[in-house]
Amino acid sequence: MQYYFFKLLIKIACLLPYSTILWLGKKLGNIYYKAAKKQVDRARATIRERLEVTEERADEITRAMCRNIGMTLMEILYMPRLNKKNIRKYVHIEREDVLWGAVKEGKGVVVLAVHLDNWEWLGAALAMYGYPLTSFIKKQPNESVNRILQELRSGAGMELFARGTNEIIIAARAMKAGKMLGFIADQDGGYDGIFLPFLGKMASTPLGPAFFAKKFKAPIVPIFIVRRPDGGHSTIVYDSFHYEDTGNEELDMYNCTKRMTEIVEEVIKKHPDNWLWFQKRWNTPYNPPEGEKEI
C-alpha cells in the first residue's frame, strides 16, 4: 500500500507546475523544521560548532536547509517530468569540456559528489546529458521507498548497482568500459576509512574514490549541484586530477583522499544551507596516537 501511495503522490506532483512544486517544498520544509526536532537540533549544533557561527546564523542556515530538503523531496516526486529535452531548463551542467575530457581518457572516471542540494537530480541530469554514469546505491530501510527510488533513477537513465552485492566486480567492469563511477563521499567511513580533518574535526573518510582512481589510473572529477535563486540548479565542476603514485601507497591514498576532502569542505562552506548537517559524519570515534592532541 505504501508503494502505491507513493506512486499516487508522484502522479499528482507531475501534474503540477514546477513553481508549485517549489512552493509546496518550502512549506514542507517549514513543517519539517518544526517537527523534526532531533535532526534540527543536531544540525543547528553542528553548524555552530563546525562553522564557528553565532546561534542566530546557525538557525538561519538550518531553516534554509530544511526548506531545501522540502523542495528536494518534492522535486524527487517530480522526476518523471524530466527528460533529455527539458533537463537543461532545470539543471545547468557547467564546464562540460572537463567532464568529456575525463571520459575521453578512456580509463573510466571517478565522480566525486556529496549530499548537497538535490543530488538525485545531479545523477539524473548527468545521465540525460549523455554521460555514461554508473553509481553505487545504498538500500533504503523502507522497501517501498527503495523500490520507488530505483524506478525513478532507472527512469532517468542512471545505471545502478546495490551495495552488498558483487559491487566491486561490477564497478570494475564499468571503469574498464570507460564509464563514470559516481561516489557520494561525505558519509562516515567507519573503521575501514581513513581519519582526516573535516570542517575542523577528525572524521573517518571513505577510501573508495581513491582506490578506484589508483587501480584504473582514472581521473577524478569533483562535481556538485547547488540550488539557484530562481529555483533551478547549477553545477560546480572542479578541474580533474589523478591519484599520484609515489610508491608509498599509504601516504598516496591519504594525500588523494585529503585533496578530495578539502574540495568538499570548500563547497560546503560556500553553500552551507545546501548540505545535510544532521547526518552523522563524525560517527566513528577518533583515537589519536599517544602524544597527539585531538582536533
Summarize this structure as a short list of keywords or feature phrases.
49% helix; 295 residues; alpha/beta
How many helices? The count is: 11
Overall pLDDT, averaged? 93
Helix/strand/pairing category = alpha/beta
Strand content: 5-15%
Strand order of the largest sheet: 1-9-8-2-5-3-4
Short précis:
The protein has eleven helices and nine strands. It has 295 residues and is α/β, with parallel strands linked by helices. A hairpin with a 5-residue loop joins strand 8 and strand 9 (233-237).
Write structural notes for this entry.
It is built from 11 helices and 9 strands. With 295 residues, the protein is an alpha/beta fold. A 7-stranded mixed β-sheet has the order 1-9-8-2-5-3-4, with helices on both faces. Strands 6-7 form a two-stranded antiparallel sheet.
Topology:
Layout: H1 2-13, H2 18-35, H3 37-51, H4 55-77, H5 87-90, E1 91-92, H6 96-104, E2 109-113, H7 119-128, E3 133-137, H8 143-155, E4 159-162, H9 167-176, E5 180-184, E6 194-198, E7 201-205, H10 208-216, E8 220-227, E9 233-237, H11 249-270
Parallel strand pairs: 1-9, 2-5, 2-8, 3-4, 3-5
Antiparallel strand pairs: 6-7, 8-9
Helix pairs in contact: 1-8, 2-4, 3-4
